[in-house]
Amino acid sequence: MSEHEKYLKRTFELAEKGRGYTSPNPVVGAVIVRDGAIISEGWHQLFGAEHAEVMALKAAGERARSATLYVNLEPCCFHGKTPPCTDAIIEAGIAEVVIATLDPNPRVNGAGVQRLESAGIKVVHGITADQARQLNRGFFKLVTDKRPWMTLKLALTIDGFIADVTGKSKWITGELSRNFVHQQRQQHDAVLVGLGTLFKDDPTLLPDDHAGYIPYRMVIDEDLHIPFRMNLISDQFHTRTIVLTGSGANQAKIREFAARGIKVVAAPKDEFGWINLPELFRILGEMGVTSVYCEGGSQLAGSLLMTKLVDEIQLFIAPKILGEGLRAFSGLMQTLDTALQVRWEEVRQLESDLLLRGRLS
Amino acid sequence: MSEHEKYLKRTFELAEKGRGYTSPNPVVGAVIVRDGAIISEGWHQLFGAEHAEVMALKAAGERARSATLYVNLEPCCFHGKTPPCTDAIIEAGIAEVVIATLDPNPRVNGAGVQRLESAGIKVVHGITADQARQLNRGFFKLVTDKRPWMTLKLALTIDGFIADVTGKSKWITGELSRNFVHQQRQQHDAVLVGLGTLFKDDPTLLPDDHAGYIPYRMVIDEDLHIPFRMNLISDQFHTRTIVLTGSGANQAKIREFAARGIKVVAAPKDEFGWINLPELFRILGEMGVTSVYCEGGSQLAGSLLMTKLVDEIQLFIAPKILGEGLRAFSGLMQTLDTALQVRWEEVRQLESDLLLRGRLS
Q1: Does A336 touch chain B (CB under 8 A)?
Q2: What is the ipTM of this complex?
Q3: CA B310/CA A280 separation, integer angstroms
């Protein structure tokens, strides 16, 4: 690993500290290096708060003069919630800036680099760019496609079932897989399930770590059928719940939810009474949701695949054979020629389960 | 790796040269080492032919005196098709014998070691024993359970389908996976399919390498419905085909098959007219078949799992999603509490497919 890679990797670690709190902003980490040593660090801690670069510059003070700044994303060059980072970098007398990847936001996207260079600062960018984009895949997705990054999670038996014939799915996978899922919830802005799964399992959709960041918990409920007694509506984290409904939903009912602190978001329905999912995800994007972790069920998973809204799939394959059971997807029927294709990105053993992560292409 | 392990590993390689030709005998390799160098090698080449130890001893001649013999399986100590290897070893003046694993055959099983020791030869055994048993898992299975080792192969989509809704299964998996299957055919004494698969695909069940060992090709055909025009009956390797039928099968039809060089093996049927699979496999064991590679279809695969006849499962998971299609197993229905359990032994990427190998427990 080169020096540049080493320090950029550190910016990734710092960026992760802000995970969950910065959306729709990206997570960003910055380190300032002088004479082969890190003299200060910073990260974007909260949406609206100071940027990583500014935090690191403040911590370095006068020592930033002639030093090198590392950052995982191109510094901003416009006045948003905070002044442009490029100005702060120039003012601090930084000699060189090493950037993992350019900012896809059209208001930056190379303009930050230009601003720094025209002030006589040496700029290097494009090192570990893939990892940097992966780190902020939700932010990149939202800027590029105007919708959140969608990760679809499935816990399956070897023969492709998500529950047995009695409907039982607790637990197909082992504890390590379930822990991994809990961590993934904290890696996304929102966790999403269909109404069927809500009725069946009454899940809390919380990460294990209740003290840390709690993602939005979303359920698709076309006609606001969800009873108030369910965990998502009644537990202590209910203000983190968003009910996704159809645009014709009963206004009195919406007010009842609002009175309980539950947000309701409405999207147009199609001619069959189902929510138009691409439209719903466009709306979620406008709300600043950069990433969604969908945990089923089969109807929602099938519809998301059909409408090409899935970016990543996480399969937990349990070493079990059922023969019959509930299938992973419904409402989807392809032939071998039209099958949806996945490109594997990771294969990992989690106790006796296998985790397969792949990208939909 | 120790010296002992190094030379035993060489015996495994030599043993593999006999693969396919030695059943129901095991594959065996032997090396003779003197002053830190291999002076001769041998392997069991063909059922009934001389044993690996004898081949190596002959090649070493007088130089075998005071040398060390390595062999993957305990030398035999009884008169079978050939005289006992223990006598040949003692006569040659071997000073030390290093054995990977004891022979499970009750006529040997430690008696070979005793015979050598009582002649003043130093014997070491139990090094790399697991690999040695894996090398001859068919032989061990047959000796221990009186039936062949059964490997079940499945090519599946992510969502667990072996064909799309039109019945098409060519090709779910990629070329590398299919090559692997061809190699596996040569690693087993027999390849087996159900009649449905035969009618649908008219497969040859041959390995790519037609010049090498050709396994038995078996099809289960309760009532001898298979037409003579099918590849298994009519191609140049038809004498390697065995039709497995019910014990009440038409004798005239059996003679017709025999006249074409096709062997028919009959096993008792159950009250529903299906062949009693445990009984069939006991009969195959008696015939000296030590291992079977089953390639489907879903009916046969389900029945084999139901009757607990599957030892190993090889899953080729293609990176495809169909939504609907033909399921992997039929006639099998378990709940999560009674699900069949697999213990993963290997996970490997084959181009864009994943190969998961596991042991049924």
Answers
A1: yes
A2: 0.90
A3: 47
CB contact set of B174 (below 8 Å; sequence gap of 6+): B318, B350, B351, B352, B353
What amino acid occupies position B220?
Answer: I
Contact B235, B241 (CB under 8 A): no
Kindly provide the residue ranges of all beta strands, DSSP E only, lying in chain A, ordered along the sequence: 29-34, 37-43, 68-73, 96-101, 122-125, 149-157, 161-163, 190-194, 216-220, 241-246, 263-267, 291-294, 312-318, 320-321, 326-327, 340-350, 353-360
Task: Please indicate whether, in this complex, the C-beta atoms of B329 and A343 are within 8 angstroms of each other.
Answer: no
Beta bridge partners of B74: none
Least CB-CB distance to A160: which of B160, B168, B347?
Answer: B160
Which pLDDT score is estimated for A28? 98
**Phi and psi of A209, rounded to 5°?**
-80, 90
Mean per-residue pLDDT pooled into runs of 10, chain A (361 residues): 95 97 96 97 95 97 97 95 94 98 95 97 97 97 97 96 94 96 96 96 94 95 94 97 95 95 95 93 97 96 96 97 95 95 94 95 85
Nearest CA to B97 out of B133, B141, B52 is that of B52
The reply to whether residue A336 touches residue B320, judged by beta carbons under 8 angstroms, is yes
Under an 8 A CB cutoff, do B161 and A160 touch?
A: yes
In total, chain A counts a number of residues equal to 361
Predicted local distance difference test score (pLDDT) of residue A221: 95
Note which residues in 138-167 of chain B have CB less than 8 A from chain A: 156-161, 163-166
Partner residue opposite B335 with nearest CB, options A164, A333, A344 = A164
Strand B29-34 relative to strand B37-43, pairing: antiparallel
- Alpha carbon distance B236, B312 (integer Å): 30
Question: What's the residue count for chain B?
Answer: 361
**What ranges make up the beta strands (E) of A195-334?**
216-220, 241-246, 263-267, 291-294, 312-318, 320-321, 326-327
The confidence score (pLDDT) of residue A271 equals 86
Q: Name the residue facing A342 among B315, B321, B331 (closest C-beta).
A: B321
Per-residue confidence (pLDDT) for residue B304, from 0 to 100 = 97
Residues of chain A contacting B357 with CB distance shorter than 8 Å: none
Tokens representing B311 are 């030892």
Give per-residue pLDDT as tens, B223-277: 999 999 999 999 999 999 999 999 989 999 999 999 999 999 999 998 888 999 9
Selected catalytic residue, list A50, A53, A295, A312: A53
Question: Rounded mean pLDDT of B80-108?
Answer: 95
Query: What is the value of pTM for the model shown?
Result: 0.91
Q: Is A176 on the interface with B (CB under 8 A)?
A: no
Band (pLDDT 50/70/90 cuts) for residue B60 is very high
Whether B343 has its CB under 8 Å from any CB of chain A: the answer is yes
**pLDDT grade for B1, boundaries at 50, 70 and 90:** confident
Alpha carbons B326 and B328: distance in angstroms, whole number: 7
Which chain B residue lies closest to A334 (C-alpha atoms)?
A: B322
Q: Tell me the per-residue pLDDT of B7-30, one tens digit each, with 9 for 90 and over.
A: 999 999 999 999 999 999 999 999
| Interface contacts A/B by beta carbons within 8 Å | 150
Closest residue of chain A to B358, computed from CA coordinates:
A319
Q: What angle do CA B233, B236, B239 make, to 5 degrees?
A: 60
- Establish if A342 touches chain B: CB-CB under 8 angstroms: yes
Q: Which residue has the tokens 């409405």?
A: A266
Whole-number pLDDT of residue B272: 86
List the structure tokens of A155. Answer: 């816990």
Indicate yes or no: CB of B329 within 8 angstroms of CB of A321: yes
Residue positions of B annotated with a catalytic role:
53
Check B323 against A333: CB less than 8 A apart.
Answer: yes
Q: Give CA–CA dist B57/B129, Å, rounded.
A: 23
